[in-house]
Design brief:
single chain, alpha/beta, TIM Barrel, 11 helices, 234 residues, 8-stranded parallel beta barrel, binds 2-phosphoglycolic acid
């Protein structure tokens, strides 16, 4: 069985190089745990070198400066994160970035997610369209999909997804991937979840939902919380 995937999405934190290094030192002390994962850290670019030196795998928060990302040995790149979509990143740009990443040998971590909490299933069509547009002209299994309902993202998110809702959505995403890419390729694509993953909900969200791991935002900046999340995924 492949290792679970765990991505620490630092967004625009920590606030200083000192804090970034201290967080990396704490994570390094728990490195035996993180070896059990396909683990990477997505720091702001200014901390790339520190993360690279720590020996942890790098994920980029955006597909930019391809050669620089490659020179750091960047393993993953987050594409279509809601923060960037909110700043105007269109489906067309996302599609282009997915292709650039694949050509560069960096695995795109494609984020999709509806904006508002919807209990009537209308978000399914929205997700289908995001996937279709982002993957237009792509026939590749070296992609990871991260389902991140925008309404559940961030420390001050109003709602949290239930394991039931998550598991239904993952089934739907896999079906759409199979329609777009064919079953053989789709079966090789992992689906992650992101959106207020916390020590309190990680185990329930991982169990029986068919996700392969997490993209963790704010809780990844707290080494203790992050460790608890990781432990509950095994
Ligand atoms: P969150 O962020 O864990 O802080 O909700 C997830 C993300 O934005 O990737």
């Amino acid at each position: 069985m492949a290792r679970p995937i765990l991505v620490a999405n630092w967004k625009s934190y920590p606030n200083s190089l000192f804090e970034a290094k201290s967080l990396l030192n704490q994570l390094a002390r728990q490195s035996r745990l993180y070896k059990k994962f396909n683990f990477s850290i997505a720091p702001p670019l200014v901390y790339f070198e520190s993360v690279a030196r720590s020996g942890f795998a790098l994920a980029s928060q955006d597909m930019e400066m391809t050669d620089i990302l490659k020179s750091f040995g960047t393993k993953f790149v987050i594409v279509g994160h809601s923060d960037r979509r909110a700043k105007g990143e269109t489906e067309e740009i996302i599609n282009r970035k997915v292709k650039i990443a694949l050509r560069a040998g960096i695995i795109p971590l494609l984020c999709i997610g509806e904006l508002f909490s919807d209990r009537d299933g209308e978000h399914f069509e929205f997700l289908r369209s995001q996937l279709r547009l982002a993957l237009a002209g792509v026939k590749n299994s070296k992609i990871i999909v991260a389902y991140e309902p925008v309404w559940a993202i961030g420390k001050s998110a109003k709602g949290a997804i239930s394991p039931d809702e998550l598991s239904q959505t993952v089934i739907f995403i896999k079906k759409v991937l199979s329609d777009i890419l064919g079953r053989k390729i789709a079966n090789q694509i992992s689906v992650l979840y992101g959106g207020s993953v916390e020590p309190a909900n990680a185990e329930a969200l991982m169990r029986d939902t068919n996700i392969r791991g997490f993209l963790v935002g704010h809780a990844s900046l707290d080494a203790k919380k992050f460790k608890t999340i990781a432990e509950s995924m095994l």
